[in-house]
């Protein structure tokens, strides 16, 4: 390994500095939530009402998605399996630790402390998912030092954007189509724009998959597929809202899956299935139902959204991703713009339509709970009437459906702008020579940063372009995340 890519000093020093800073911040600002504080003796009085039993199942499900689903999915390159899984592990672990602090700073209690509970961990996992989606745009072309720096900077950009959108614009986004998928996508595109490598536009000799790496990757897809209903429903209102969210997510995923198989066979010149389509396009429905996942959109609409998202994702990865690389200097390595950008836009549009169509006839009084910003403001006589029907209903802003739709639109454009600018600035920092940037020749290769086992030498002979047959063709610009 050349001195310019050695991790011997860079990685330990960066980790040590980050750990010292976080240890100091945790010591100064983080304490226990009421549901974790022994002083309150909740364990003796009403232990089963502890928030742990409400939040932990969703935390566990999302954790499987983060560490196993994303990890396996990113291991699709033949010579980059260690890096795909392990760099995901490293980045995710740090991102969650960091997000607990950064997100907590916007939710200080009266004592100036972050009161830690499982729900904080769950929120931090969603912020971590943002980082891992963005990671997909630069997979194979970055060092672990660069990825830690990316997480270090992206989490604050995300937390500020999330806080501003939820506090001032105030939107409905139960499944995170705007604040998770669109933000992550355009942040990642901003980063990869700054890290543009012209020589990689025509592919790379090591940018190939193998039989075993494709199997590992589709396992990641299956983990994400199975647990996606938890991801979309975790932060919705308990009860029928959460029930609808799970139903809609499953239906959307199911329709996108069977559509993906059909499209894969139709567009393959030999009428066969392509593993890249199965690993990626099948998940599109989980994103496209996100913005309206808890609304009364009907099962048929969820089914249609799954088909629309799958089709947009498939065509995007087939035609749009190569165009972005050649014409706009955006090398979207895993096609995150297809699975998270295009589908996020479809989902956000569907959410706006659902808001415009929402009526009390369809929702009953609960409309003002689901669309909380449409609830009457404090002092309005109608608020008192609604609170008798829905105890605990909070005052809203009294927005009309049309006004709320415009705020949703504003959130889409502001989120995309903030994330892309944040990605550009982060990419500028990641380009610094001290970040252990891999050379073009060393991209997509585990050997650059890992001590490889002895049997890896057997597959080393396969790395030369001349050894590739038509089944081992380059997977450049493949869409995986």
TrEMBL record:
Q: Which Pfam families match?
A: Ammonium_transp
Gene Ontology cellular-component annotations: plasma membrane
Indicate yes or no for the key word Aminoacyl-tRNA synthetase: no
Under Gene Ontology molecular function, one entry of this record is: ammonium channel activity
Arranged from A to Z, the UniProt key words for this protein are: Ammonia transport, Cell membrane, Glycoprotein, Membrane, Transmembrane, Transmembrane helix, Transport
- Subcellular localization: Cell membrane
- The protein's predominant localisation is membrane
Q: Entry's InterPro entries?
A: Ammonium/urea_transptr (IPR029020), NH4_transpt_AmtB-like_dom (IPR024041), RhesusRHD (IPR002229)
Its domain of life?
Answer: Eukaryota
GO term, biological process aspect, one: ammonium homeostasis
Q: Does the keyword Cell membrane apply?
A: yes
Q: What is its membrane topology?
A: Multi-pass membrane protein
Can you give the residue ranges of the Ammonium transporter AmtB-like domain? 22-434
**Transmembrane stretches, start-end:** 12-32, 58-80, 86-106, 118-139, 145-166, 178-196, 216-235, 247-267, 300-320, 341-359, 405-425
Role, per record? Functions as an ammonia transporter. May play a role in the elimination of ammonia in the gill.
Q: Which family does it belong to?
A: Belongs to the ammonium transporter (TC 2.A.49) family. Rh subfamily.
Instruction: From the Swiss-Prot or TrEMBL record, give the protein name.
Output: Ammonium transporter AmtB-like domain-containing protein
Q: Which organism is it from?
A: Sphaeramia orbicularis (orbiculate cardinalfish)
- Show the taxonomic lineage: Eukaryota, Metazoa, Chordata, Craniata, Vertebrata
